[in-house]
Amino acid sequence: MTKKTDQDVMRENNKKLVLKTLFNAGQTSRSSIAGAIHLQKSTVSSIIRELHEEGLIEELGIGEASNAGGRRPNLIQFNYRYGYVLAFDMGARHLRYSVNYLNGEVIKKDSLRLVGNSVKDVFQMMREVISGLQAFDTMKGLLGIAVSTHAPVHENEIRYSPFLELDSFALLPALQEIVDVPIRFENEANLTAISIRDFWYYAGEEPLQNLLALNIHNGIGVGTIINEQLYYGVQGLAGEIGRSVIYKDKQVYRLEELYSEKAIMERIAKHEKKAELTVDEFAALIESKDAFVLEVVDEWITAIAQMAYNLVQYSAPEAVFLSSRSLSQFPDLLQRIFEEYKALDPLGETRIEFTQHDIYDSSLLGGVALISRQVLGLESQDLVFKK
């Protein structure tokens, strides 16, 4: 292998810097890019030519002159329709997917009911989705696939799954046999954290550098962003807070055995003498002010506030973002969580918010950002994606 010279490395870094600036800028010009990143115009023009040859530049024509006069600039922008990416979310009961341009704009998305709980069955559904894809008015078509899993992931391999039977079936090689594009697996809480980092709009505020995404669904997980980078921990096991132990009623439980959304609804379903409870039925019981349900919800709110408080004491993020299907329907419950949290930490600077995206969109958008960054070679750059 030929060793890269310092000049090669510098050229590569400059190309990434120009590409990042193009990605974030919208309409711009070569001189504007050179000024923004403090590179010589000749260097920027050379890199722009290279990116243009690769199909990553879209020419927009002549723009308006500046107030100071001078030549009118040739406007360009990043070619978001260079290709598209596909993101899957493998849930307990549904396979959700989203097809997006490289900048994050949605082309198509859908949710498919799972038949069985075997990962091999999930693969068959994925294959049908992939086989039905078109070019979607792009140059290169499909560029990469991200797969959100409700399980820990290490080195692109699912460690274990509490909801799907892995069956000794190797999902990654099976996908690689039908498509020749990069494929990334990642934990759904981690992808939620990525989506907040890359898609969240802060109304003029500086992007958050340190944040937590606390996902309370069938399990409980946390995605952690530290200094704008995702924290994985040893073998990808960071954030498995649901497996934390808690002592209650003289027994030791896992936290998610008591306070996951699944555990709460199973507890209420048992009281209602039902095999299971849907989110809509749960919401209806809350609205009816059922005494038992309200008692369970009160306990749940306190537990979530304490979880958030404990997480904040450990990592001191700028914000904690909560995600839950059922809680998202009741803003007053979210307010109560916030109030109980503030009572525990009245002087704390960390804010508690609820994710703006649909909870499933969050993991899908995180997958879109993850694989788009890999395709473009901009994994560690500050990028602004669009909904």
UniProtKB/TrEMBL annotation:
UniProt protein name: Transcriptional regulator
Protein origin, superkingdom: Bacteria
Keywords: Carbohydrate metabolism, Xylose metabolism
Alphabetized SUPFAM superfamilies for the sequence: Actin-like ATPase domain, Winged helix' DNA-binding domain
Domain named HTH marR-type: residues: 17-58
Function text: Transcriptional repressor of xylose-utilizing enzymes.
Transmembrane stretches, start-end: none
Stated family: Belongs to the ROK (NagC/XylR) family.
Keyword Transport: no
Lineage start: Bacteria, Bacillati, Bacillota, Bacilli, Bacillales
